């Protein structure tokens, strides 16, 4: 029943606090600053009717000191404080490599592999065209083999990292299958 944060991401969080005021009895002053640089304090006024607020545009992997000051014209309420650390920045796959290309398959690998990734989705389809197939790969892996392809065809391959936070980031590469054997 105190000021606390939920939905923490790399760039923000939601603050929740108990209902101390109402629209009529006052407002809240919210102050927040990085612990390492309290001079960069930001201040926001919030209506007394609110019991939550989303802060965004914050720096990743940074601890913030947050103070909620109830400005009541009826009672004195002590300020409530909390400390919140934002998550590490979610970076997209920076490299997608295609290797071991044959007439019917190729090998796709990607980097970096991050703890914050739940799974990877590999989308692939022939160019030009819009028939796309999807492979799901566990977040601990950094490669997979794409099979049952057409020979001598260019494919667009997109690797999407699906983060535990629900965010997604993608990177694409082109892959060509080899010419098939005669008689295929």
UniProtKB/TrEMBL annotation:
It is found in: Secreted, Extracellular space. Signal peptide: none annotated. This is VWA1 protein. PROSITE patterns: FN3. Residues 1-90, 92-180 form the Fibronectin type-III domain. The keyword Glycoprotein applies. It comes from Falcunculus frontatus. Its main location: secreted. GO terms for cellular component: extracellular region. Keywords: Glycoprotein, Repeat, Secreted, Signal. InterPro entries: ECM_Regulatory_Proteins, FN3_dom, FN3_sf, Ig-like_fold. It holds the Pfam family fn3. SMART domains: FN3. The keyword Transmembrane helix does not apply.
